[in-house]
């Protein structure tokens, strides 16, 4: 009490004196002064509390709070961390509704799925819980909703009056031997953006003598009429095996080759074609009593002959259309399959960078069935239209002769699927990479798109939807064929 009076005397410039000291002494226990002092202290405390309350509001108003960007069409959630502002409460946030979001005041949380891409100013309406009037104030903050990358790509129709018109997307499902098959082929975003055609193609065909074929081709993006080359290649190679005599021969030789345990056989040498006398394309058959080796040579010879004839027909097609062979550059992969008592025989061939894989019945092992033309540059890819592939020593490696007791899935794909989902060739022979891929197909992806191989009444459309997945930098045509 005395200290407080002395402070007042100083403020009012009352000099110290004997009378002052005497007065202070007499008033030390004055009840009235004591009551007044308590009131003054309480008022001071109230003033400080009021000041602090408003200061907290100003600090929150000026604070730099980072609100993460949202992405259009993607689930969004952000909770404000108010640990540095324990007395601040957010009542509402204005303008969120303009981008399709909501605010939960109880949890101080912004949530929802943004419907549009936009940069907006949001108004954060808040108050201090210690304010008996709960007077609100507004903090303005910038909020960004990024565009869905897919929306940045235009989807222009291919010109209907162009040569070699091709539909942009096509789906297919059917039985395949004693299994089923589903295929989807989709125009890539890069082609859709520029109103150009899908260059991929495929064909599934049941053949005589219980054989069936699946062919997939990827026309070169640099070739003006690649779409025609890929279609021609698929159609022609499938039809070339639509021949009972050829298939009976294959059935006989396949039985000879696979019916007993195969041993390691010598490499096959492919004879070059005698263009001058137009002799048929054949593979040399070693003069040996080894019937298995002879059967292997005969099988590869049949495949090789049709492949060589396909290249000749591609050249004739280009000439008839008055275009160059380079204008119809295309890759090609195919599998010729039949079920025997001893298992599924899969004869395969490939030129280019499109893989063929088979996954065993219990999904513990995977086999890459074809040779891939891959490298660090796009020039590493080879095409069916390149005559030089037939003179290379690795030509024989392009043919695959395999037999499996059973399998869960046999898959052919173009690089529009391979590049984003597997990235590198080594992963094509890694079962964990394939199990990841199968989980992706089963719905474990950011779009929650599922391909149901059990309840498969709508499987072709499910596969088509799944193939719309986003992968930065990968906007090529996509074709995926699955035998299951």
From TrEMBL:
InterPro entries in the cross-refs: PPM-type-like_dom_sf (IPR036457), PPM-type_phosphatase-like_dom (IPR001932)
SMART domains: PP2Cc
Domain PPM-type phosphatase: 173-483
Protein name per its UniProtKB record: Serine/threonine protein phosphatase PrpC
Lineage: Bacteria, Pseudomonadati, Bacteroidota, Flavobacteriia, Flavobacteriales
């Amino acid at each position: 009490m005395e200290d407080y009076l002395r402070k007042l005397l100083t403020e009012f410039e009352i000099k110290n004196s004997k009378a002052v000291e005497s007065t202070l002494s007499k008033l030390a226990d004055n009840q009235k002064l004591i009551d007044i002092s308590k009131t003054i202290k309480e008022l001071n405390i109230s003033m400080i509390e009021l000041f602090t309350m408003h200061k907290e509001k100003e600090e929150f108003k000026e604070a730099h709070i980072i609100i993460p960007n949202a992405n259009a069409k993607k689930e969004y959630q952000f909770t404000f961390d108010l640990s540095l502002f324990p007395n601040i409460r957010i009542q509402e946030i204005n303008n969120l509704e303009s981008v399709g979001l909501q605010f939960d005041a109880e949890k101080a949380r912004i949530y929802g799925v943004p419907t549009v891409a936009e940069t907006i100013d949001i108004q954060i309406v808040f108050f201090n819980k210690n304010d008996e009037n709960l007077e609100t104030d507004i903090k303005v903050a910038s909020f960004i909703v990024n565009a869905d990358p897919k929306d940045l790509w235009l989807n222009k129709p291919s010109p209907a009056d162009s040569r070699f018109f091709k539909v942009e997307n096509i789906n297919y499902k059917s039985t395949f031997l004693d299994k089923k098959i589903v295929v989807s082929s989709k125009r890539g975003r890069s082609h859709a953006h520029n109103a150009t055609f899908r260059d991929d193609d495929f064909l599934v065909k049941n053949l005589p003598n219980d054989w069936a074929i699946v062919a997939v081709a990827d026309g070169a993006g640099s070739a003006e009429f690649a779409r025609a080359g890929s279609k021609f290649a698929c159609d022609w190679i499938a039809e070339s095996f639509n021949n009972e005599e050829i298939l009976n021969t294959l059935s006989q030789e396949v039985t000879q080759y696979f019916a007993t345990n195969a041993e390691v056989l010598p490499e096959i040498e492919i004879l070059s074609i005698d263009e001058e006398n137009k002799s048929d394309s054949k593979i040399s058959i070693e003069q040996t009593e080894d019937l298995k080796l002879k059967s292997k040579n005969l099988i590869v010879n049949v495949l090789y002959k049709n492949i060589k004839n396909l290249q000749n027909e591609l050249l004739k097609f280009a000439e008839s259309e008055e275009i160059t062979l380079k204008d119809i550059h295309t890759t090609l992969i195919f599998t010729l399959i039949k079920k025997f008592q001893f298992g599924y025989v899969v004869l395969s061939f490939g030129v280019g960078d499109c893989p063929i894989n088979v996954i065993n019945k219990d999904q513990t092992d995977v086999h890459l069935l074809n040779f891939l033309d891959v490298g660090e540059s796009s020039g590493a890819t080879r095409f069916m239209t390149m005559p030089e592939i037939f003179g290379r020593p690795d030509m024989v490696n392009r043919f695959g002769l395999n037999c499996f007791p059973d399998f869960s899935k046999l898959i052919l794909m173009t690089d529009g699927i391979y590049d984003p989902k597997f990235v590198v060739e080594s992963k094509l022979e890694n079962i964990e990479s394939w199990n990841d891929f199968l989980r992706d197909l089963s719905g474990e992806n950011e779009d929650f798109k599922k391909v149901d191989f059990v309840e498969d009444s709508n499987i072709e459309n499910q596969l088509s939807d799944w193939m719309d997945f986003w992968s930065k930098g990968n906007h090529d045509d996509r074709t995926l064929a699955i035998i299951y």
